[in-house]
């Protein structure tokens, strides 16, 4: 790659990043369906035509934000599932990791929480697909810990989906606590509730096939 081509590519990536960051900021107080393309380009300081060098439309930008928002969470939670042996240790590590992720990326969590059931279909579908892939990964992590004779694949998948739904719910609860009640005590309350809920899921898992 020539020096000129490298500079152009770096500038293109910088503009794409700026468009995504501007959209995230603007989406703190509105949904994607109400966001205007000119709002985003004005915030970045580029012409509206420049937007189409990076994204087909705002839905395409939204899908890119979905991939960015959930991508790092996949790796983080799977590392916890693979690295912890006991249920209590795994629960503690998971809740702590989700809380830290929300502290670091509140705009991303807010975007996912709002758009998961929002009015932009491609973005809803992208979120559903990412969470579906997340459930596949969690199910794969659970399989070695569950006896195959009593845990058919559909039941393992159901357990994984329950786990993923709980993570999304917990992240949203942390986000609300940090935004509305920044006191540490409120965040500790959310963490304690999340740990109890995960423990309940764990206890239910142990006795699921005794019922």
UniProtKB/TrEMBL annotation:
<feature type="domain" description="HTH tetR-type">
    <location>
        <begin position="13"/>
        <end position="73"/>
    </location>
</feature>
<keyword id="KW-0238">DNA-binding</keyword>
<feature type="DNA-binding region" description="H-T-H motif">
    <location>
        <begin position="36"/>
        <end position="55"/>
    </location>
</feature>
<dbReference type="InterPro" id="IPR050692">
    <property type="entry name" value="HTH_transcr_repressor_FabR"/>
</dbReference>
<dbReference type="InterPro" id="IPR036271">
    <property type="entry name" value="Tet_transcr_reg_TetR-rel_C_sf"/>
</dbReference>
<dbReference type="Pfam" id="PF00440">
    <property type="entry name" value="TetR_N"/>
</dbReference>
<dbReference type="InterPro" id="IPR001647">
    <property type="entry name" value="HTH_TetR"/>
</dbReference>
<protein>
    <submittedName>
        <fullName>TetR family transcriptional regulator</fullName>
    </submittedName>
</protein>
<dbReference type="InterPro" id="IPR009057">
    <property type="entry name" value="Homeodomain-like_sf"/>
</dbReference>
């Amino acid at each position: 790659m020539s020096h000129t081509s490298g500079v152009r590519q770096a500038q293109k990536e910088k503009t794409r990043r700026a468009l995504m960051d501007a959209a995230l900021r603007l989406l703190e107080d509105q949904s994607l369906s109400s966001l205007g393309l000119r709002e985003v380009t004005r915030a970045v300081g580029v012409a509206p035509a420049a937007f189409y060098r990076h994204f087909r439309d705002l839905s395409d930008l939204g899908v890119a934000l979905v991939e960015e928002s959930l991508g790092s969470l996949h790796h983080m939670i799977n590392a916890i599932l693979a690295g912890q042996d006991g249920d209590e240790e795994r629960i503690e590590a998971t809740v702590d990791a989700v809380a830290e992720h929300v502290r670091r990326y509140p705009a991303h969590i807010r975007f996912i929480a709002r758009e998961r059931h929002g009015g932009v279909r491609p973005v809803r579908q992208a979120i559903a697909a990412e969470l579906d892939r997340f459930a596949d990964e969690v199910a794969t992590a659970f399989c070695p810990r569950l006896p195959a004779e009593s845990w058919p694949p559909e039941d393992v998948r159901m357990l994984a989906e329950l786990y993923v739904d709980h993570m999304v719910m917990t992240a949203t609860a942390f986000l609300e606590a940090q935004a509305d009640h920044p006191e540490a005590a409120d965040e500790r309350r959310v963490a304690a509730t999340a740990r109890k809920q995960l423990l309940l899921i764990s206890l239910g898992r142990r006795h699921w096939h005794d019922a």
